[in-house]
TrEMBL record:
Residues 14-83 form the 3-octaprenyl-4-hydroxybenzoate carboxy-lyase-like N-terminal domain. It comes from Rhodoplanes roseus. Gene3D superfamilies: UbiD C-terminal domain-like. One of its GO terms (biological process) is ubiquinone biosynthetic process. It holds the Pfam family UbiD_N. This is UbiD family decarboxylase.
C-alpha cells in the first residue's frame, strides 16, 4: 500500500520547497506557508531540521486543487468525478497480522512522551503546541464501524492532550454513548499516511460508512491495517506515527484558544481530555503538519469532499447544474453555483436545496452557466449586472449552523440566497471576441507568434 513517503518521492521537484537549515517550529512554518500563499505559490514545504526534534516536518501538502486531484489519480479538474465513483464502489480495509512499518518503534505507558513529537505552535494566541493533522480513528460502540475525523489536540503533558469535538460529528456521538455507559472512548491518532486517507477522513459520510473503505476506493486497493498495541482499534500499517489512547468519560478541562478556519482564535471547545497509552512510529518517521486557521490547505482539505458531495446531490435535483465552488474568502460559509436556467424560480429552488445540503453555508449565489464560479471577479460582475436586491434575494433567520462562526448566536445563523441569474427576457448581450483572435493573443504571449 502506498505511503506518505511514496507520495512525496513521486512529487516533481518544482512542487517542493526544502528548508535545510535549523528551523524553529513555533510560528515560522506557519508564517512561511501564509507568505507563499500571499505570493500565489503552493509548494509542499519540507523542513529537514526542526529545532529540538529529530524527525523532519512536511506541511502545505493540501494547498493546491490539482495536487489534491492527483492524490486520487484524477486529472486537475477530475476530483468530483473520482469522489463520486469512489463512494459508489467502496473497497473495505484489510487487517494484517504481520509486522507493520508504523510499529517499528513502540513506547508504552509512561515511556510514551508526546512532547518528543515535532508539534508546532502556529499562531500567537494558541494556548500551546497543537496537533491539527492527526486523524482520530475510533469505533462505533454499538456496531464497531470505524470512524475517521479531525479534531484539534492541545499538548498538555507527556501522556495528555486537551481535545475539542465542537463539530459534533460521529466521534462526538460515540463519546456520548460511551459516557452513558461509564466508559472511555478508545481513539488512535494517526499522523502521516497516504494523502488519500486524509481526504477520506475529512469527508462527511454516513455513520455506517467506514472512511477507510472510501480511501481504499480512492486508491483502488484495500487499505492495509494493523491492530493497535493497547486499544481495540486498527490503523493504517504504513502510517508514520500513531498515538494510542482514550478520550476520558466525564472529564473536562479548559482547552484553547486555537486559530480556526474562520481566521479567528477561539475558546469554543467541548473541553475533553485525551490520555495517551502508547506511541508507535516508523524507524525514520515524517511528521505531517497542516497549517490551521485561514490557510489554503486547511480550507481545501476540508472543502474538497464537501464540494464533491454537495455537487453530486444537488445535480440529482438540478440536472443543468454546471459547477459549484466554496471560495476561500468565505471560509466554509459561502458557495457559488452555476447552472443553465430554463424557468423562473429555478435559482431560488436550487439555492434552498444547496443550503439544506450543507449547514455551514450562510451565503449562496446562483449564476448563469457562462459565469466561472472559480473566478470571484466574474461572480461579482454577475451580481453587479444581473441582480436587484428588492427582487432577487431571500433570507431565512435562525437556522442551525457551525458553532465556530464567531457571528453565530447559540449555534444559529441567518441564511442569505442571491439570485444573480439573468431573467429569461434579459436584453443585455455579453461582449465577446472570435476564437481565432483569442488564440492569436495567447500564441503571441506564449512566444509562438508575432
Amino acid at each position: 500500500m502506498p505511503s506518505l513517503s511514496d507520495f512525496l518521492k513521486e512529487l516533481p521537484d518544482g512542487e517542493k520547497l526544502v528548508i535545510s537549515g535549523p528551523t524553529d517550529l513555533d510560528f515560522l512554518p506557519t508564517a512561511l506557508v501564509l507568505e507563499l500563499e500571499a505570493q500565489k505559490r503552493f509548494p509542499v514545504v519540507m523542513i529537514e531540521r526542526p529545532e529540538g526534534f529529530e524527525a523532519p516536518v512536511v506541511t502545505n501538502l493540501f494547498s493546491d486543487r490539482a495536487r489534491i486531484a492527483g492524490m486520487v489519480g484524477a486529472g486537475p479538474t477530475g476530483f468530483a468525478q473520482a469522489w463520486t465513483a469512489a463512494m459508489a464502489n467502496l473497497v473495505p480495509a484489510v487487517v494484517s497480522s504481520g509486522p507493520a512499518p508504523v510499529q517499528e518503534v513502540v513506547a508504552l505507558g509512561n515511556q510514551a512522551d508526546a512532547g518528543e513529537l515535532p508539534i508546532s505552535r502556529h499562531f500567537e494566541a494558541d494556548a500551546g503546541r497543537y496537533i491539527g493533522s492527526g486523524i482520530l480513528v475510533c469505533k462505533d460502540p454499538d456496531t464497531g464501524v470505524r470512524n475517521l475525523s479531525f479534531q484539534r489536540m492541545q499538548l498538555k503533558g507527556p501522556q495528555k492532550f486537551g481535545v475539542s469535538l465542537h463539530s459534533r460529528g460521529h466521534i462526538w456521538d460515540h463519546l456520548q454513548r460511551c459516557e452513558a455507559r461509564g466508559k472511555n472512548l478508545e481513539v488512535a491518532v494517526v499522523i502521516g499516511c497516504h494523502p488519500a486517507i486524509y481526504i477520506a477522513a475529512a469527508a462527511k459520510v454516513a455513520m455506517e460508512v467506514d472512511e477507510l473503505a472510501v480511501a481504499g476506493a480512492l486508491l483502488k486497493q484495500p487499505i492495509e491495517l494493523v491492530k493497535c498495541k493497547t486499544i481495540d482499534v486498527e490503523v493504517p500499517a504504513d502510517a508514520e506515527y500513531v498515538i494510542e489512547g482514550e478520550i476520558l468519560a466525564g472529564v473536562h478541562e479548559d482547552e484553547g484558544p486555537y486559530g480556526e478556519y474562520t481566521g479567528y482564535s477561539t475558546y469554543r471547545s467541548t473541553r475533553n481530555v485525551f490520555h495517551v497509552t502508547a506511541i508507535t512510529r516508523r524507524q525514520k518517521p515524517i511528521f505531517l503538519d497542516i497549517v490551521p486557521g485561514y490557510s489554503a490547505e486547511h480550507l481545501l482539505l476540508s472543502r474538497c469532499t464537501r464540494e464533491a458531495h454537495v455537487f453530486h446531490r444537488l445535480k440529482e435535483m438540478v440536472p443543468t447544474l454546471k459547477a459549484l465552488n466554496y471560495p476561500k474568502s468565505g471560509t466554509h460559509f459561502h458557495a457559488f453555483m452555476s447552472f443553465k436556467k430554463t424557468a423562473e424560480g429555478q435559482a431560488r429552488q436550487a439555492l434552498m436545496l444547496l443550503m439544506g445540503l450543507d449547514s455551514y453555508i450562510k451565503l449562496a449565489v446562483a449564476v448563469d452557466e457562462d459565469i466561472d464560479v472559480f473566478d470571484e471577479t466574474e461572480v461579482m460582475w454577475a451580481l453587479a449586472t444581473r441582480f436587484q436586491a428588492d427582487t432577487d434575494l431571500f433570507m431565512v433567520p435562525k437556522v442551525f449552523c457551525n458553532r465556530l462562526d464567531p457571528s453565530s448566536v447559540e449555534g444559529m445563523s441567518a441564511k442569505l440566497g442571491l439570485d444573480a441569474t439573468k431573467p429569461l427576457n434579459f436584453e443585455g448581450e455579453r461582449t465577446s471576441l472570435p476564437q481565432h483572435a483569442l488564440d492569436w493573443a495567447r500564441d503571441v504571449l506564449a512566444g509562438k507568434a508575432r
